[in-house]
Amino acid sequence: MKELSLHILDIAENSVNAGASKVEITVLENINKDILTITIKDNGKGMDAETVKRVTDPFITSRTTRKVGLGLPFLKAAAEACQGSLSIHSQLGVGTQIEVNFQRSHIDRMPLGDLQTTFLNLLIGYPQVHWIFNYQVDEKSFTLDDQPIKEILADVALSDPSVINYLKKVISEGVSNINQDNN
Amino acid sequence: MNAIKSLDDLKNVRDAALAKRKISENSGSTQVIVGMGTCGIAAGARETMKSVLDYIEANNIENVVVTQTGCIGLCEQEPIMQVVLSGKEKVTYGKVNPDVAKKIMKEHVGSGNLVQDHVITL
């Protein structure tokens, strides 16, 4: 994968598969400290300590225990190639939090990429999930909690043409206000 | 964008959508599902989904519900897109790049004709 935003889409997919009804995604860029952090926190079914140890190793993961796939090992390798790390905190029945750090200026760090489209796809593609998106660069931040939006829309679909238009506008204005050519 | 103003905008959007729905009284809705597992994403599924949403927005297509799903075990055929017209069987398409997605939206969702070259027989 060529963008961090594609990894975010992929990890969020794990959360949905784990039965999460609420997923919070945070992208935090600290320019002075030269760190880029992505956090994905869900209230899905969680994993026991044994499974947590396994999910980042593609060679140990057993297909019969849990469908995890290659997403996390890819992301972990990408972070470690950039002086970063990936950590998983998970508790059975409570949820999972994945945190991944990169040295922001590292030459091998993937670009953040099209965060707008990742957010838009998740929001529309999984309407049953309560999504919270945060994007922060130093002091500037954008937060989108989809709860008020869904309350107003009631039974109007998120993929109604005028709603797509609205969501696109809100998300791209929000993200581009924060992300001015620092990608 | 000011958050409160933006939610007021959304109320207008909702009211307009509801008014339109009353006029059209369309029977049933079409479902479009895009595979978004690791395999799908690596093959470009995010852009496929974006293409579907852009098409709906640009052509003002009502009554289509677009959702995502995980890996369905046909990784070599990704990006995968499925279409369910109201009352019809689910049709699965493989190797759906953004252009193919637009074609499926136009011909299958729009006119009810399958895009044969990309249909996967399950």
UniProtKB/TrEMBL annotation, chain A:
EC number(s) reported in the record: 2.7.13.3
A single MF term (Gene Ontology): protein histidine kinase activity
UniProt xrefs under InterPro entries: HATPase_C_sf, HATPase_dom, His_kinase_dom, Sig_transdc_His_kin-like_C
SMART domains: HATPase_c (SM00387)
Organism domain of life: Bacteria
GO BP term (any one): phosphorelay signal transduction system
UniProt xrefs under Gene3D superfamilies: Histidine kinase-like ATPase, C-terminal domain
Catalyzed reaction equations: ATP + protein L-histidine = ADP + protein N-phospho-L-histidine
UniProt enzyme class: transferase
Keyword set, alphabetical order: Kinase, Transferase, Two-component regulatory system
Entry annotated with the keyword Iron-sulfur: no
Database matches in Pfam families: HATPase_c (PF02518)
This protein's record includes keyword Kinase: yes
Domain Histidine kinase positions: 1-106
PANTHER family on file: SENSOR HISTIDINE KINASE, SENSOR PROTEIN KINASE FLES
Name of the protein in question: histidine kinase
TrEMBL record, chain B:
SUPFAM superfamilies attached to this UniProt entry: Thioredoxin-like
Tree of life domain: Bacteria
Gene Ontology MF annotations: iron-sulfur cluster binding; metal ion binding
Key words, A-Z: Iron, Iron-sulfur, Metal-binding
Keyword Nucleus listed: no
InterPro entries: Thioredoxin-like_sf
The name this protein goes by in its record: NADP-reducing hydrogenase subunit HndB
Organism: Pelolinea submarina
